[in-house]
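Example: Nuclear transport factor 2 family protein.
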Amino acid sequence: MKSVISLLLLATLSTACSTTTQPVTVQELNRQFISAWNSKEADKIIAFLADDVQFVQGSSHWQGKSEVASKWVRATLPTLDDLKTFTVSSGTDQQTAYEAGTFSVDVLPATPAEPHGTGEGNFMLLWKKGADNAWKLSYAQLEDLPVRVKQ
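Written out as structure tokens, the predicted fold is:
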């Protein structure tokens, strides 16, 4: 009888002391990320990037937080407005989360004489949980169609 009570006590304590990890909501991660793009908060966007982040778009492939921040975030941010994503597929587990689909964005003219444009394409964002339990963007891939004049 003592061994049964000890076993029940041990089971109860181990259950009570275990931590439950809530699964990440990839939609929330991407909502925050896209919101930072739309409010033009470069530092906030860059804070989402993993140190070993990779960015792929067409023939461009940039690696590392510094290069991706410089060549994608800081170079592109002033030229875009009203970024929207439309999810086709998403998934999460304890260490990774991804979302893929299509996007649309307003492309601002380089000079006042040029028309506004509209960009569209496909995206995939892959998030990984770090040792500190913070989620960071590990991989971003964009494949876009040619920019069209905004109607």
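Residues 1-20 have pLDDT under 50 and may be disordered.
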